Predict the structure.
Amino acid sequence: MEICRLPSQPAVVNLQQRQTAGIYPFKTPEFPPYIKCSLGDESSTKNPDSKNRMFILGMGFVGKFLAADLKSDGWEVTGTCTSTARKKELEEMGLHAHIFDANEPQQEILDILKFHSHLLISVPPVLGVGDPMLRHKELLKKRLKDGNLQWLGYLSSTGVYGDSGGALVDEEFPPSPTTELAKARIAAEEGWLHLACDGRVTAQIFRLGGIYGPGRSAVDTILKQEPLSKGQKMRFSRHYTSRIHVADICQALKASIQRPSPGKIDNVVDDDPAPREQVFKFARNLVEEKWPGHISSNNSAEEAKSLIPQGASRGEKRVSNKRIKMELGVRLLYPTYECGLRSIIERIENPFGVS
Ligand SMILES: NC(=O)c1ccc[n+]([C@@H]2O[C@H](COP(=O)([O-])OP(=O)(O)OC[C@H]3O[C@@H](n4cnc5c(N)ncnc54)[C@H](OP(=O)(O)O)[C@@H]3O)[C@@H](O)[C@H]2O)c1
């Protein structure tokens, strides 16, 4: 099958044929907005009727939230983490957890993969290394092919789009990563799509905006009264930032599991890209409204000073979520940061210990 790129149609690529023809790996990733992988007959040997079992590689912030959500829907969920403290926390939630290092993957944990129907990859790439799991793709390929896996989701980032000068970008916008990490992301997206195609598994990519939710938000940062990290300060130099509440990421993932589409890329962002400075100002007002007088004005002045753009911009853009709405039928629970932050603060009991 030829690569077909028509302006108004998604690009269709038969990954297997391209690989056989020795076209992969790409040196410079040129990523079509929509890749179709022909899974062939072998995919029909997988058992789609078996119980839904999710394996989450990297049960971090999103992974943990999704695990709890799926578990309440009756799924079996297993996942990995890197520390015993984290493992204990996950087990207390009723999840199966394994300590796992993607740099040196234990075969026996990879073997467990075979008994799962779905796999979510949430381990980020590392500068200078790339995706640590993909360095072991031969180990993974066999497990994907021989097991019962039907669906693989890779959590990526809208950072892959680079700088669009403030224009709204959708999945058709050619990625133009400006940082080494964003380049590693694109390579990881491609790597997982190829691997899944070889393993006869439907793979989908989710490009997430800045993730927030209970326990990780501008409200939480202000309540902790901690100085902003260097990374947070740097990100203020971008005008627009797209973000997404973790509950809406779970919605999009679940909707895509219901309507699998090999090679599809979805942006997962809310309706309201906004500068971080504006988000922090809004969060600060919420905190002051709820607990007047508890936030030091010194902190506010320091924060304002630290928000002065520093260093080079990492790209100005707004990201479109039309596809998840139109094709997956997602109706965002938190379409704006205002309603997302309000819902977070409503659930926080007095963090200052006195009323
Ligand atoms: N934060 C954002 O705003 C944002 C935006 C767009 C995309 N993303 C990406 O979306 C994904 C999910 O985000 P998140 O906020 O849920 O990430 P997170 O909380 O940092 O979770 C990442 C998970 O990967 C695990 N992990 C990291 N390095 C590993 C290694 N070498 N071997 C094995 N496991 C490893 C971590 O283990 P532990 O649990 O033991 O720490 C954790 O479970 C990540 O890839 C992230 O980079 C994040």
In short: Residues 177 and 183 are 5 Å apart (CA to CA). Residues 15-40+47-209+246-268 form a domain with the Rossmann fold fold (CATH 3.40.50.720).
